[in-house]
Write a structure and sequence with these properties.
15% helix; 4 domains; Collagenase (Catalytic Domain); alpha+beta; Immunoglobulin-like; disordered N terminus
Length: 514
């Protein structure tokens, strides 16, 4: 089944507001010398794989990393889309990827979620056997521009896992790029890592050797010639990828625009890089591709390398297509449920599904920081959600998928209301509270009135629809009725979420700014 991910992403972007990535998407993979040695081993033991061949199915264990309290993590929908991108990119290589059981594993650790490079041993211990292990985190090494990395050394006895930052799961040259490293590919600018070309620093023409970082490379890396005469021993050792001296990070380079500065190789020949190569750093190319020799190197590593024997198998996953979406049954559309403490949602099953991803959120776009979600087996077409906000409208939806078929759609969006009882269920000291005016005009102050049964210190927090905290202030809530005003700066029009946070929990309401 051929799937056009470009069409899928266009549709997804229109409805969920995904912005194109225009920055260079930095890979901070370590152990490049070890990858270089693996590639050399594979090439020395090369067996022509070009004859007609069957599709090889490779297992992937996805790990959704969140903060210790379960917040600030990637959604199941994004993980399924990430797998969809990966399979689309590798389809013409007769290599496809499928999910292990369970399809998504959860790790609640704030440190790992933001600085995974400090927790290599913990990630290694969390791996699922017989699969490529992929951890999706909030940040990479606290670097906002870092998109992902492959952690060597290879083989089950090594580290051998991948980390991807959640803001880059829709970039075609991030997850497929790190899988390329997993299967022994180097950067086209191999040896220039951390040192992008500039004339003042590295000259024009460039020298015989790349400015390889001695903390990364034991020996100098020879610069590749544009004519390919030294391609087997220089640069990325792949002969149909032209030289690239990390031009993507030059201050004058914009995304995937054609490189226009006439930089010369050591033979005084002007270099012409392949901007849309998956293993490059050029971003926002529309379509990123592997070359024929890169594809062959990946195939040889998968089929021949002893470091890859633990992911090599003869298994064929469930290939059933899913051509329908669930029909929501309960709660009835727009109805009020009995309690905010426990809410059960149910739907008419999709017979082809193995799993369902279910989401409940305050936001109709399912993008608020208070989104609740889970994955369940197809044998149980219902899900239980607990500790919802009282007196609030919620939206919910269901997405079917299988271990292989992840390019699927959601059900129609349903909605229900939770009742208001005598106390706010997540913050017992607060009997009631309100925001006015709501909607509010841009620049207008916000008035908050509360009725408390006891005094307590609180934080008033405002989040935008992407889950980013845009305002916070400390308040001492007193016993009885109290009102106070907020005048947060730079609240543009849109949907926001205002939370009162105390020691025992939080309560949240929606705020519309126009």
């Amino acid at each position: 089944m051929k799937f056009s991910f470009g069409l899928f992403l266009s549709f997804f972007g229109l409805f969920f507001g995904i912005q194109p990535l225009v920055m260079a998407q930095n890979c901070v993979t370590s152990g490049l010398t070890q990858i270089e040695n693996r590639l050399a081993y594979n090439q020395a033991n090369y067996a022509n794989q070009a004859a007609e061949r069957t599709v090889q199915y490779v297992p992937v264990a996805l790990h959704a990393v969140r903060n210790t309290d379960g917040s600030d993590g990637i959604s199941e929908a994004q993980l399924l889309d990430m797998m969809c991108i990966l399979n689309d990119k590798y389809q013409d290589q007769e290599i496809q990827f499928y999910l292990t059981n369970p399809p998504i594993n959860y790790i609640n650790n704030t440190g790992i979620n933001n600085v995974p490079n400090n927790f290599t041993s913990e990630l290694r211990s969390a791996r699922i056997p017989n699969a490529i292990n992929v951890f999706v985190t909030n940040n990479i090494n606290d670097q906002l521009g870092a998109a992902g990395y492959y952690q060597s050394p290879a083989g089950w006895s090594g580290n051998d896992f991948i980390v991807v930052a959640r803001n880059f799961v829709y970039a075609q040259n991030v997850f497929p790029h790190e899988i390329g490293h997993f299967f022994s590919l180097l950067h086209p600018f191999h040896g220039w890592e951390n040192n992008p070309w500039s004339e003042s620093a590295w000259g024009n023409p460039v020298g015989a050797n790349a400015p390889s970082d001695p903390s990364i490379f034991v020996s100098p890396i020879v610069n590749e010639f544009q004519n390919g005469s030294n391609c087997a021993t220089a640069g990325d050792r792949i002969c149909d990828t032209p030289p690239d001296y990390l031009f993507a990070l030059h201050p004058n380079q914009g995304g995937c625009a054609e490189w226009s500065i006439p930089v010369q190789d050591p033979n005084n020949t002007v270099v012409n890089p392949q901007e849309n190569n998956v293993m490059s750093y050029f971003g926002n190319c529309g379509s990123h591709d592997f070359t024929a020799d890169q594809k062959e190197a990946i195939r040889v590593d998968l089929m021949n390398s002893p470091d890859r024997d633990y992911v090599r198998n003869s298994f064929t996953p469930n290939m059933t297509a899913i051509n329908s979406v669930p029909m929501l049954l309960s709660p009835a559309e727009g109805s009020t449920v009995n309690s905010a403490e426990t809410v059960t949602v149910s739907w008419f099953p999709v017979i082809e599904a193995q799993y369902y991803a279910i989401e409940v959120d305050l936001s109709p776009g399912f993008s608020s920081p208070f989104r609740k979600s889970l994955v369940g087996a197809a044998s149980t077409p219902n899900a239980l959600f607990t500790d919802l906000e009282e007196g609030t409208e919620y939206f919910w939806r269901v997405r079917p998928f299988t271990e292989f078929t992840t390019c699927t759609g959601y059900s129609d969006r349903g909605s229900f209301f939770t009742p208001m009882t005598t106390a706010t269920n997540q913050l017992s000291e607060l009997s009631a509270w309100d925001i006015s005016p709501n909607p509010v005009s841009t620049g207008e102050q916000i008035n908050i009135s509360v009725m408390a049964s006891a005094s307590f210190p609180a934080q008033i927090e405002i989040y935008n629809r992407l889950g980013q905290k845009v305002h916070t202030v400390s308040k001492n809530i007193v016993d009885g009725r109290q009102s106070f005003s907020l005048n947060p700066n730079k609240l543009g029009s849109g949907l926001y979420f205002v939370s009162i946070v105390g020691k025992e929990g939080r309560t949240t309401k929606k705020l519309l700014v126009h």
